[in-house]
Amino acid sequence: MKFLFATGGTAGHINPALATASYIRETHPDAEILFIGTADHMEARLVPGAGFDFKTIEISGFKRSLSPKSIADNVSTVFKLVKSEAESKKIIKEFQPDVAVGFGGYVSGPVLDEAVKLGVPCCIHEQNAFPGITNKQLAKKVDRVMLTVEDAKKHLDCKHEPVVTGLPVRGEILEKDRESARKEMQIPADRKLVLSFGGSLGAAPLNEAMFDILKKHAADGSVYHIHSVGTNGRDYLDKFEAEGFERVSDTVLKKGTVEVRLYIDDMDRCMAAANLVIGRAGASSLSEIEAMGRASILIPSPYVAENHQFHNAMALVNRNAARIIEEKDLTSDSLAAMMDELLGDDALLFEIEKNARAMAILDARERIAEIVLSLVK
Question: How distant is the alpha carbon of residue 375 from its chain centre?
């Protein structure tokens, strides 16, 4: 059997595809798997690093601005699109896949379009509650559409009824529990732990809102708190050091019950130990929050396509499985008030945790792989 995967751009698209392909490789060792992506995004590193064959096409997205530069870029994108269709057709004819699978990103468009034209059974997976433009177009043509959450269904015009499969989460996330994680981190069982982060790069608005909150927590010891400023937020480490935080290493500062890090490289342990998680609303992060059953305050990034993080967050909020603060309303006061409300009410925290856990689909990669395999003629 031969499987063609098309995805790229962000880890949110690439990692679920890798999880599914890895499961197919584990259960069907003779399967041939080929990924198509672009040479200038992270799939060019992640896919070969996972041991899969990888070929590239040249493609980019359209800009919505009417500035001269955006218009020039869009003209270039039209030429790239025509070229990428020819490149995709050539790769598909050479590889002759039994199934083509799209996991989002601009690269999925021309690859799945050509696969459909060539009569290859096709399916796509949509990670977000509000689908991207590429998947909206492909949903009308492909044989199966898979969704992370039910909420995406109302935004799609599908050729066939879509299926909710969930989104694969890392195995180490599922292996951790709160009690053992807190013992490892030496956090007393009767104390609350807050985990906050703005993604690997960080989020300046969250760092700003957290600054006074973290100083307060360090001074009064009311809660344990781990905060990541992100790799673009290194200057915040200097600000905290000026406030009396001790520099434990180049990337970690501590004061009292508060720890400020440049990045979090043990997310599975930190999230397992946490009573409250504060961060953005990317699909992968939310799937991990659901899998662990954690209460959360979500601050969706307003800078992503289709404002999809807001819709991701609302899928939880509407089920009383999270709280939301939009970035335009984010201040130290608004965030502190919501944190105090949740941390001061154990029954409320438990209810939100229970509702988040109820949304989790822990066998997502198996569900996705089953649908992919079902399309093999």
Answer: 26
Q: What pLDDT, on the 0 to 100 scale, is given for residue 255?
A: 97
Residue 135 vs residues 102, 158, 368: alpha-carbon distances, Å: 8, 10, 16
Q: Across the strands, what pairs with 33?
A: 3
Q: What is the pLDDT of residues 192-206, one digit of tens each?
A: 999 999 987 889 999
158 and 180 Cβ atoms separated by less than 8 Å: no
| pLDDT tens digits, 124-135 | 999 999 998 889
The CA-CA-CA angle for residues 195, 232, 242, to 5°, reads 75
Query: How would you list the strands of the sheet with 99-102, edge to edge?
Result: 53-56, 32-37, 2-6, 99-102, 122-126, 144-147, 163-164
Closest CA to 105 of 64, 60, 140: 60
The residues with which 226 forms a beta bridge, in sequence order, are 195, 259
Q: What does the pLDDT look like over 43-53, one tens digit per residue?
A: 999 999 999 99
CA distance 294 to 199: 17
Q: Which residues of 14-42 are buried (b: 16+ CB within 10 A; e: fewer)?
A: bbbbbbbbbbbbeeeeebebbbbbbeebb
* Cα 325 from Cα 164, distance rounded (Å): 27
On whether the CB atoms of residues 26 and 120 are closer than 8 A, the answer is: no
- Locate 107 and state its tokens: 């690269």
Q: What does the DSSP assignment read for 1-46?
A: -EEEEE--SSHHHHHHHHHHHHHHHHH-TT-EEEEEE-TTSTHHHH
373: pLDDT strictly greater than 90: yes
Task: Estimate to the nearest angstrom the gap between the alpha carbon of 175 and the chain centroid.
Answer: 19
Q: What is the pLDDT of residues 55-89, one digit of tens each?
A: 999 875 544 554 555 554 544 554 456 677 989 99
Nearest 5°: CA angle at 301, between 197 and 245? 25
What 3-state DSSP class applies to 60?
coil
Distance from C-alpha of 16 to C-alpha of 364, rounded to nearest angstrom: 9
